[in-house]
Design goal:
Chain lengths: ~500, ~500
């Protein structure tokens, strides 16, 4: 608090910086629950945890080199007291690259590591778009084997399954930079500009269908708004080669996809290499017991300028809906691929690496939309009502007994009356309120108020007579019976 | 990578910013394990999780107001694109204050929340002194009841117990700002300067003993180096009052301490109030089943200019030793107290609050020193040796089977020979290496190498014949027996 010249204290306004969210109660547990489920999966596969600091030197982060005019472009950067620029990590791959380069000689190789935590991006915030969010990554550094790719895909699927997204609710689609190079070779695509136009066309298959892609591969396409996009100018034969590459049935088995691609790409150097890689990936996935949850889909063009081999991307098939029940689609919640340039920025030496990243914050939103967010179902504590200061020890003992039995419990410690305390218990989403009046204490009794029954009554559900008989709203029992009776209420089928 | 004028690429050096640590493997798990043990304790007591962003507006953080010349004093601060200064949180209390002030009207009150995560301090790093470390806090906002203080203390002890520091290995010492005010009143101490001198003298009891404190309360003290510290200049009677206040036996029960203090402080307004508070805290602790692990110790002078009521501070009694077996002392690993100014900076209104903070990073170091860090004991994965590319599916299936049985397992995915693979397995701290040569696969067999047995042989332990018989270094068994045999090795008593 600073004083203005006339001595009126100036009070700061209590507000969070733009793009940073506060989360309280069950909402704060969603991301934590996800990483607590994913971490044991990674560890079971032999991946080691790695924790690095929030800051990296800006030159080590690489992607965003700050300059004096605009040091914060994309990242949160500041100058250390020795004048060196540091920036908060914008993903978990850049710190891995720095760590691997720094410790390469002494690491067990291949080096399998996982990591999770917040990353920061200095971008314009918007609805559902934050400047701080969580990722959870697994990478294998130092293995050029396609089996390492297969492992990353199988782990991602095991993680999704552990989160409740098994049984066909999510698939991982696998493609390969080498296959794309093969089809470019087969179609006679030449030069960076034409390559880019073809890749962009392929990337639009989802949105424009085969017809639109055909136009973009040829002369060009006029969209509904009248804008014309110039095409790649391929010949009919070249276009057909690309279309054949893309026309793999979505539900086909992995080996069937390879059979379709072989005649198209087998004759090209890069395509043939890519096919051998995918055969090995298929073989490994099968050994891991992974069936149709992992598919080959040549149309996945994920950051192809970055990846050097296989690329993977999840697709959520679960029924996801917003709060109003309208269907919503979520983009890729886990994706990655093989990239060889990981440590080359530091050492000049290519090291093969492959990995995938879970967008934990987006995954949390997706689980909520799929009504699979178990954290959201967490109940509040049992609340012991405080009537009199003198009887505080009786309230405290009751709460202690419940906690010792593993039940969340607390004594109301404000100064409000009975009515406000009941309202408090309701707002805490308490299942039960414990009433220990002076008479009850003297008689060795306790009264339990079933707040779920109360909520049901308020919503009219409890008109059902059978239900009412099973759930008396309020009961006075022997004090010695407290834990058993509270457990019975908490474990009763929930009312919805 | 940037190019110099002569086109030699300039490569950044791979290094972490000063004061930020990398932690790999078991070391990376220590802090995570601690918060995963503390969080359920807090939740059982009815505390809700709260997550806020890493940044706060600098004016909201308050303690460190950046100016244009030196925005980074103590915190990591930077200017947002709207020119507002933001800073990374330096503790978890400041974000709570901002959040509580911002949401006070809509929060259930009293508001019990816990939080954990990294905090950042822009200070000079040194050995064991980092600029990023973890805290784990619990606070109750909106309750002036001493029972709320007792709850914080009891929870802290329950947390320490859950971490393996029960049974007298840690105590929490409780004092009170009000008691100190009482003794200052009883001793006739007046004015801010004299008060400060007396508090400083009390704070040195641990180091200088009663004799040194007596000198500092009186005329002053000459230390060994010849430096003279001017004393508070109290009269003999006043000094005696302070000494009586401090001469509570360290092992005394809480009620006995109150009996000693009553005649000294009962006559003062503030002291009498403080005694009533401590009586209630004692009563609540007793109801919670907390015995001598929570003590009253008037000599604890913890940030008294900040706290307004009870203060608490843990003392570790466990046998803590450094890597060379030398005893090491750890400062307070959990501490806190009651403070009423939490939201006043924002709202101008005092709201009673009480809480405690675990220094998670320091606690992790203490648990290691007490050899209680279970994360450090985590074993590496079982490693399946890769002999031939063709047999990869057989290796993958074996690893999958082990994982399905809950055993950490991986296939070696590098390109090195058998000897290097065994070295890799050893460096991963693998308990077992799985050998599936072509002959073994054909015969439906598998060979297990007990790497612990190998380590024991290397260290001479395995000369014990009985032990050797129980742990054959290498065994070839039926492939169908894989999981059982690996489990038997992993679960065998460890060799030290």
């Amino acid at each position: 608090m600073t004083d203005t010249p006339d001595n009126t204290p100036v009070r700061p306004e209590a507000r969070a910086p733009r793009g940073f969210a506060d989360r309280r109660g069950p909402e704060a547990l969603s991301e934590r629950r996800i990483v607590q489920i994913l971490a044991p999966v990674y560890e079971r596969w032999g991946f080691e945890p790695l924790e690095t600091g929030a800051f990296e030197y800006a030159d080590a982060l690489g992607k965003f080199l700050p300059d004096a005019d605009r040091p914060n472009e994309g990242v949160f950067a500041l100058q250390d007291d020795d004048e060196q620029w540091m920036a908060l990590r914008y993903d978990l791959t850049a710190p891995l690259a720095r760590y691997a380069a720094q410790n390469w000689e002494t690491l067990p190789k291949p080096f399998r590591r996982y990591a999770y935590g917040p990353v920061w991006r200095n971008e314009k915030p918007g609805p559902g778009r934050f400047r701080e969010f969580w990722q959870c990554d697994a990478d294998t550094v130092g293995s050029d084997r396609p089996e390492a790719d297969a492992e990353i895909v199988a782990m991602a699927l095991e993680g999704l399954d552990a989160l409740g997204l098994g049984d066909g609710q999510a698939v991982v689609k696998i493609a390969s930079r080498k296959l794309v190079n093969g089809v470019l070779e087969a179609a006679g695509v030449e030069g960076a500009a034409q390559t880019l136009t073809v890749l962009r066309a392929i990337d639009k298959l989802d949105r424009l269908g085969m017809e639109g892609v055909t136009l973009l591969l040829g002369e060009g396409r006029l969209d509904e708004s009248g804008d014309f996009t110039k095409g790649a100018g391929l010949t009919r034969a070249s276009i057909d080669a690309v279309l054949a590459f893309l026309s793999v049935p979505a539900e086909a088995e992995r080996s069937a996809v390879l059979n379709v691609l072989d005649p198209i790409l087998g004759g090209t150097r890069s395509g043939a290499e890519g096919l051998v890689d995918l055969q090995k990936i298929d073989r490994a996935l099968t050994a891991f017991g992974v069936g149709q949850a992992a598919r080959f889909d040549p149309a996945v063009v994920r950051g192809l300028e970055y990846y050097t081999g296989a690329v993977f991307e999840s697709e959520l098939l679960a029924d996801t809906r917003d709060e109003k029940g309208r269907p919503v689609r979520f983009g890729s919640i886990v994706g990655g691929g093989r990239y060889d340039g990981l440590v080359a920025r530091f050492t000049g030496q290519d090291v093969p690496a492959t990995g995938a990243s879970f967008g934990v914050s987006r995954l949390a939103a997706a689980l909520r939309a799929a009504r699979l967010d178990e954290a959201a179902a967490v109940r509040g504590p049992v609340v012991v009502i405080a009537f009199s200061d003198d009887d505080m020890p009786a309230y405290m003992s009751a709460a202690s007994e419940l906690r010792a039995a593993g039940i969340r419990a607390e004594v109301y410690l404000g100064r409000a009356g009975m009515k406000a305390q009941m309202k408090y218990a309701d707002r805490r989403n308490a299942p039960v309120a414990i009433l220990l009046g002076g008479d009850e204490i003297a008689a060795g009794q306790v009264t339990l108020k079933d707040l779920d029954a109360g909520r049901a009554a308020a919503s009219g559900i409890s008109d059902n007579e059978a239900w009412k008989a099973a759930r008396p709203g309020q009961q006075t029992i022997a004090r010695s019976d407290l834990v058993r009776a509270v457990k019975a209420i908490i474990e009763a089928p929930s009312i919805k």
